[in-house]
Design goal:
The protein is mainly beta and 162 residues long. The chain has one domain. It contains 1 helix and 12 strands; from the N terminus they run ββββββββββββα. Strand 7 and strand 8 form a beta hairpin.
Length: 162
């Protein structure tokens, strides 16, 4: 069971004056299990995305993706926790307007997802085509076609060889 809690606060404007960058403080928590939650610190009403993801693990909050490409991506609050609670898949959506002229702009959207290591709050894998999947009993992310996209055992071996 996943519980989503919304608490809205005051509006704050980010450095850019564009409407796409205006977020409002919105302490939003997705409870994954008894000790794990995802926390989003802000919401952009225009883009309809939540931002500033952290993992709350046993009441300790860790910012996700600090200094990585995950920064700037938003969420529609999708989350899938692995059976052993070591990894979580979240949506990672990039939305923004490209301004051809002052009067003309086009909204661009890029829908991706990320597998996050819960203990380290780091992104292990970012995907685009393989987001439509689920965790199996071996804690592997399996694409809807049946192809194993992520296996924690292979990831450990890869990290040891680097």
């Amino acid at each position: 069971m996943i519980l989503i809690v919304f608490i809205y606060g005051t509006i704050k404007s980010v450095v850019h004056p564009d409407v796409q960058h205006k977020t409002q403080k919105a302490d939003t928590t997705i409870i994954l299990n008894d000790t794990l939650s995802l926390y989003y610190g802000s919401y952009n009403r225009t883009m309809k995305l939540w931002y500033n993801l952290s993992i709350i693990n046993k009441k300790k909050r860790l910012k996700v993706g600090k200094g990585t490409g995950y920064n700037g991506t938003g969420s529609e609050l999708f989350a899938a926790l692995s059976p052993n609670a070591k990894h979580v898949v979240v949506d990672a959506i990039i939305k923004g307007y490209v301004h051809q002229t002052d009067q003309d702009s086009t909204l661009h959207e890029n829908y991706t997802c990320a597998i996050i290591d819960i203990d380290k709050a780091t992104i292990i894998k970012q995907m685009q085509q393989d987001c439509d999947g689920a965790w199996n009993k071996k804690n592997q992310w399996v694409f809807s076609s049946g192809k194993v996209v992520f296996s924690p055992n292979k990831e450990k071996q890869k990290n040891r060889s680097q």
